[in-house]
Structure prediction request, 172 residues.
Amino acid sequence: MTPTDAIDELNLSPMEQAFEQLYDCCHCRRWAHDMVAARPFENAMDVLAHAERFWASATESEILEAFSGHARIGDIEKLRSRFAGRAKDEQGQVLQTDESVLRELHQLNIDYEQRHGFIFIVCAKGRSAEAMLQTLRERIDNSRADELRNGAGEQGQITRLRLLQWLQPTEQ
Prediction:
């Protein structure tokens, strides 16, 4: 599929199908509804511009809704089950790390969630488990408000990558 084909498919899909495809990129119902309502899109850059604008207006509850669509970084069992396809692609390097790093990553994720009330969100694509662990260590003592902003920014990057992957698949 070419980028033009993907844009045409998005523009011409029935509302429910387009909603599901977009929701899968962000896990925020209002965002996905806004994106569907903004159709037709001219090109991938138009999709990304709308995605960013709509995400920038997300409320706390919408941000938390989007966070709920993620596995904890380093949660090997969830990587192998519910989130297997996407999480393995996005967190694949975590599976290739030392067991002690995984244990610390897992424990700090639990500590982070207890402290802030939501899971640690980081755009993991291309990052090693060690790098994500360092980021988690740096962010865990931040205020909840700061982490909500940090996580929302990371969610925006994740959504952008997912949209690009969907709209501009690599030619095989």
User: Anything to note?
Assistant: The chain has ten helices and no strands. The chain has a mean pLDDT of 88.
